[in-house]
Design brief:
This protein has helices at 17-31, 36-45, 47-52, 56-68, 75-83, 88-100, 122-133, and strands spanning 108-111, 114-117. With 134 residues, the chain is mainly α. It has two domains: 1-103, no CATH class; 104-134, no CATH class. A hairpin with a 2-residue loop joins strand 1 and strand 2 (114-117). The longest helix has 15 residues, at 17-31. It starts with 16 loop residues before the first helix and ends with a helix.
Length: 134
């Protein structure tokens, strides 16, 4: 149900070095074409491959491989974005902002001023949403 009570804002936390940067860049570049969540899902579904890749060239090739699996994603535009690291400065600025707020890991959700850390039961989120809606 979409009743406007909840707005989801995703913020990257670059806490795993170049792997975090490259994965976040891939999602941001796909997001420029409205495919953020598709790339995000692909990266999480195949996370072991991402963590197994070593070196900048291997990570970049892997991001392009993931992109090639996303229907409707303009591959040339995506490649230009990730090759040129067009989103990196914005991602680093957002990461710095998160760190200033004390957020250095994930998952962390903030609902109506309440910070929920880690994997929690559905009821925890439901209660926080209900409390914030009042």
């Amino acid at each position: 149900m979409r009743d406007g009570r909840v707005k989801l804002v995703f913020r990257d936390v670059l806490n795993h070095g170049e792997r975090s940067e490259r994965a976040s860049e891939a999602a941001a570049c796909a997001g420029r074409q409205g495919k953020f969540w598709e790339m995000h899902a692909s990266l999480f579904e195949k996370m072991s491959e991402t963590w197994g890749a070593s070196g900048s060239d291997a990570l970049l090739a892997l991001m392009k491989q993931r992109a090639a699996e996303i229907e409707g994603l303009d591959q040339a535009d995506f490649a230009q974005c990730v090759d040129g690291r067009e989103t990196l400065a914005q991602l680093k600025a957002a990461d710095a902002e998160q760190r200033e707020r004390g957020i250095i890991t994930q998952p962390i959700l903030e609902i109506g001023g309440q910070r929920i850390v880690g994997n929690q039961a559905f009821e925890v989120f439901a209660q926080a949403i209900e409390a914030a809606a009042k």
